[in-house]
Amino acid sequence: MTQEETREDIIVVAVDGSPASDNAIRWAANTAMKRGIPLRLAASYTMPQFLYAEGMVPPQEIFDELQRDTMQTVDRARDIALEVAPDLRIGHAVAEGSPIDMLLRMSNECTMIVLGSRGLGGLSGMVLGSVSGAVVSHANCPVVVVREDNAVTEANKYGPVVVGVDGSEVSQKATEVAFEEASARGAELLAVHTWVDTNIQGPGAGYAVSEDHWNAVQQEKQELLDELLAGLVEQYPNVEVKKHIARDRPVRALTSAAENAQLLVTGSHGRGGFKGMLLGSTSRALLQSAPCPMMVVRPE
Fold first, then answer.
1. Nearest CA-CA partner of 39 in 76, 108, 93
2. pLDDT the model gives residue 85
3. Whole-angstrom Cα distance, residue 25 to residue 206?
4. Are the CB atoms for 213 and 220 separated by under 8 Å?
5. Residue pair 88/38 in contact by the 8 Å Cβ criterion
6. According to the CATH classification, is domain 154-300 in 3.40.50.12370?
7. Rounded Cα distance, 243 and 225, in Å
8. How many Cβ atoms sit within 10 Å of the Cβ of residue 134?
9. pLDDT tens string 87-138
10. Cα 13 to the chain's mean position, in Å?
């Protein structure tokens, strides 16, 4: 039996009682409702190491209290989810140990994992905590990061699903997931393909590149994007597709395109990424700058 055959069509959301987690719960509940699938709340607890010396066994009362506190967090999370989707089927999983280990195990068996992120941390340029960073980099299913400032608003509630398309294998997988999301949400899909001047060969050293040359390149990129999307456009006739070719860097173009979007979908690394790379520079930068929840899709 393959891994895909053992997957359960369910959304897992990590809960820890923080405002960022609450935002992720709302987004996950709304997504589960639109897909018509259950939601599973995932929480973990660990014994504070500083309380007991190595080799000492803490009393059972400490474990009982940690479990009670964790279940209170889960119950509160369930209430938040039911406010968004009153008829949603909701389960939960609670484990002792690292939340990273728990979520990575669950990533083998679910449709997607949703995580909250506080956004920029105390260190310059730091966007993800250790949990979300590890899960995004290693999960075996798509991972959605919902930052604390990614609230659902009237402006983005019915916005498009935006996907970056560059022709790489992982980008193709991300595009497939984006079409599936747009179809489930009844949303428009905006496919963005970018190119920059350094990739283009002009007529030769010392020559100015004419506007006709740029127009020809633009047309070539448009035809490439049409070709990359053709099969999925046919497979999802209910999804309205818009295409955008941008002569710009991917991070800037996708950040701009994702304004008022429901979701931004990217591959974990693009054409410039090294084989085996866990998370490329574009994905890392977008996790910091994206104005909406962002889904990272990793290769099989």
1. 93
2. 95
3. 57
4. no
5. yes
6. yes
7. 8
8. 18
9. 999 999 999 888 899 999 999 999 999 999 875 433 333 345 678 788 988 9
10. 12
How many CA atoms, within 13 angstroms, populate the side-chain half-sphere of residue 174? 31
Taking the C-alpha atoms of residue 48 and residue 66, their distance in angstroms, rounded to an integer, is 10
- 154-300 has the same fold as 1-152: yes
Type of residue found at 236: Y
Q: What are phi and psi of 87, to 5 degrees?
A: -100, 10
Task: Tokens for 132, please give them.
Answer: 């979300």
Segments making up each domain of the chain, as ranges: 1-152, 154-300
Higher-confidence residue: 274 or 255? Answer: 255
DSSP line for the chain: --HHHH--S-EEEE--SSHHHHHHHHHHHHHHHHHT--EEEEEEE---GGGS-TTPPPPHHHHHHHHHHHHHHHHHHHHHHHHH-TT--EEEEEEES-HHHHHHHHTTTSSEEEEEE-SS-SSTT--S-HHHHHHHHH-SS-EEEEETT----TTTTT--EEEE--SSHHHHHHHHHHHHHHHHHT--EEEEEEE-GGG---SSTTPPPPHHHHHHHHHHHHHHHHHHHHHHHHH-TTS-EEEEEEES-HHHHHHHHTTT-SEEEEESS-TTSPTT-SS-HHHHHHHHH-SS-EEEE---
Query: Into which CATH architecture does domain 1-152 fall?
Result: 3-Layer(aba) Sandwich (3.40)
Identify the CA nearest to 182 among candidates 263, 298, 293.
263
Please state, for a pLDDT cut of 90, what percent of the chain lies above it. 52
Please state the pTM of the whole predicted model.
0.84
Residues 99 and 108: beta-carbon distance below 8 Å: no
Contact 85, 30 (CB under 8 A): yes
